[in-house]
Amino acid sequence: MDQIVNVNEFQELAKRALPKMYYDFYSGGAEDQHTLKENVEAFTRIMFRPRVLVDVSKIDMSTRILGYPISAPIMIAPTAMHMLAHPQGETATAKAAATCNTIMIVSYMASCTIEEVASSCNAIRFLQIYVYKRRDVTAQIVKRAEKAGFKAIVLTVDVPKLGRREADIKNKMVSPQLRNFEGLFSTEVIPSEGSGVEAFASSTFDASLNWKDIEWLRSITKLPIMVKGILTREDAVKAIEAGVDGIVVSNHGARQLDYSPATITVLEEIVLVVGGRVPVLLDGGVRRGTDVFKALALGAQAVLIGRPVVYGLAAKGEDGVRKVIEMLKNELELTMALSGCPTIDDITRNHVRTESDRLKSML
Question: Does the annotation place 255 within a ligand binding site?
């Protein structure tokens, strides 16, 4: 791993390590994959306004999310079925997160059970959930997460139906049996045509889910509830009105609605309307410590890392995931030093210049 110098290089290693069907499943986006490219490219259009002659001999990247301390504002996003990437699956990812002293959001569609992840190591963890047509299944999973010591629920709200992921359709992507649901129902779909993951989703996901259902979720758990999949100020207002404890600005890794905006381009409008009432996190397109800094400057409390974690896992297991997080932390530390920001609180809106700033200055 010595010769790997940045997070992007893990993608090529993962491509070599994985069967095509699984690599395409992890790497692919919806339809034309416009948003997939834009999630990354939008970061490149934000420039720095670095400050000099600031004492940066000690850099402190630590912060808190929902009151829980983390070593840096870099968390692990929920991504499905880690055993397709590595035999140890989510337990390897969880151990790497614990070593890096950060929070992993475990996917509802994990290969390992909630209990296996919880017992693999001692760490703060959140659980991402979908709401199924069978509400009793979702309720049971939430109860199990509470019992296993998970500290928050992250409700994904952008999947009334699964996005059209054409690589999965071509590859006839298999949906494996997930152990969390054993004894509840089968998740296994081996399609004769099309994507098995899509076939499973269309038969189980509740397309009637709406804002009123936050109350239902609140009634079955005492844990804080964050919503993931907000892209407009209007929905951010609705989320606050519904009493959520946090918002994740996300377009589902560009896997749902193609031509939805790159998350970094809508972060600021959401942050402004939330006005500090709850934490706002961002996921999508973060590949560098500079990207993390840009998101923080535009008001995010932390970022979530999805694909790079899976690529690290596929390439080098637990060590690969740890290396991905450490590389991003090291790059963030350097960016903070070179921008004149000794702590996370020192990073301000004034440290970046966006496209809209440039357009305003031309008027």
Answer: yes
